[in-house]
Design brief:
There is one protein chain. Strand 7 and strand 8 form a beta hairpin. The chain is α+β, with helices and mostly antiparallel strands and about 375 residues long. About 35% of the residues are buried. Helix 1 packs antiparallel against helix 2 and helix 5 packs antiparallel against helix 6. It is built from six helices and 26 strands.
Length: about 375
């Protein structure tokens, strides 16, 4: 194998796929990346056997071939090479010579056949979704997923389709987000996708962790994300990059049962005013289980903390309120997490009573709701 390429393209591709490599590998070779030169493209891949990332970039290929080398080693070369062009060449089968005008590095690798096979997903269902819509939905959903493996089904996003719409749901059993995207997909789909791979897809779409100027493609300009599903796997393609993952086995909770079907009080709050008050009051609330009590009805919303060793706090938030009167206690921590993920100027708070979950909706984001379970009031 021998090819030359743009240094920035090599570096950005290596940085992207290396995100699939876990901190603790079950096998030493899982700390490697696979480099393949074929046609007019160089493909680099990495996997932890659960999630795989594969991407490619333009290269001038003299001899086709492949090799697997430690990710840290080849990243070190690409990151600290000042020349804009580099040449990569295999020597004696398992050595990779990395050269530029002012550098020459030899890396010890292994035969490509030793690297785990990253097989394409067998297509049962495939469809495309608008990249901007998916990015916005993932931003509003993934933060609610559980970050532990105690209940694996909660560590992923539930994806289902219904009448040309794609519904994404995340929950950790204490809060929940649901987002609806119009896709035109008519296939009946129901699966749970690990949040880890969706976080990587989200980063790739936004371009925050993707390619920078100087590369041959900008991922954040890709208008669609192509999704392929089999019984056990999912593949999401963003431009020249493929994200592959196993689906999470198990049944997602019947979350519709806990979403209140009616509302006693509806309050429309200024997002900025609401966020500022909750941030201030969290100083006291965190001393008592993050407890904030809301008194709703008859105009503005009243919020107060319990008495704590540090003191207490109260706030009056300007609100347009309809309905009766009620009280509910909510977690200041969960509120801040939710409020930090929204951009709308106003937020709607829907409450039945202090025993049912509070539901938040965004006037400018139809098809979205966020639910927070109530706490025991500590007045």
């Amino acid at each position: 194998m021998k090819f030359s390429c743009n240094t920035a393209s090599l570096l950005q591709s290596l940085q992207l796929v290396s995100r699939a490599i876990s901190g603790q590998q079950a096998l030493p070779i899982l700390g490697n990346v696979l480099v393949q030169a074929e046609g007019a493209r160089c493909t680099v891949s990495a996997t932890d056997l659960e999630i795989s990332i594969v991407t490619s970039f333009d290269a001038a290929i003299e001899n086709e071939g492949s090799i697997t080398v430690p990710a840290k080693a080849i990243l070190n070369f690409a990151q600290y090479t000042t020349d804009s062009e580099v040449v990569l060449e295999t020597v004696e089968g398992t050595q990779l010579r990395c050269m530029s005008k002012h550098s020459k590095t030899n890396l010890s690798g292994e035969l490509a056949t030793e690297y785990p096979t990253i097989s394409p997903v067998e297509k049962n269902v495939s469809f495309a979704v608008n990249a901007h819509d998916l990015l916005q939905s993932l931003h509003l959903v993934t933060f609610t997923c559980a970050r532990t493996s105690l209940r694996p089904v909660l560590s992923g996003v539930f994806l289902r389709t219904d009448g040309g719409k794609m519904i994404l749901v995340g929950t950790d059993s204490y809060r929940l987000s649901e987002c609806v995207i119009k896709t035109g997909v008519q296939d009946n789909i129901s699966c749970i996708i690990p949040v880890k791979v969706l976080e990587e897809v989200k980063a790739a779409i936004s371009g925050q962790k993707a390619k920078k100027p100087g590369a041959d493609e900008k991922i954040d300009q890709v208008p669609q994300v192509h999704v392929t599903l089999s019984q056990q796997q999912v593949e999401l393609r963003v431009g020249a990059t493929r994200f592959l993952s196993r689906l999470i086995e198990g049944k997602f909770p019947d979350y519709k049962q806990i979403i209140p079907k009616e509302t006693s009080v509806r309050s429309v709050l200024s997002t900025h005013e609401f966020t500022t008050a909750v941030r201030r009051m969290h100083y006291f609330a965190k001393e008592v289980n993050n407890n904030l009590t809301f008194v709703l009805g008859g105009g503005d919303a009243q919020i107060r903390t319990p008495q704590t060793p540090l003191g207490k706090d109260e706030a009056t938030i300007t609100a347009e309120t309809t309905g009766g009167e009620t009280k509910i206690a909510l977690s200041s921590s969960y509120l801040l997490d939710f409020l930090s993920h929204i951009d709308d100027a106003n937020v709607e708070l829907h409450v039945v009573d202090g025993m049912h979950p509070a539901v938040f909706k965004l006037p400018n984001t139809p098809g979205f709701l966020h639910l927070i379970m109530p706490l025991r009031m500590q007045d």
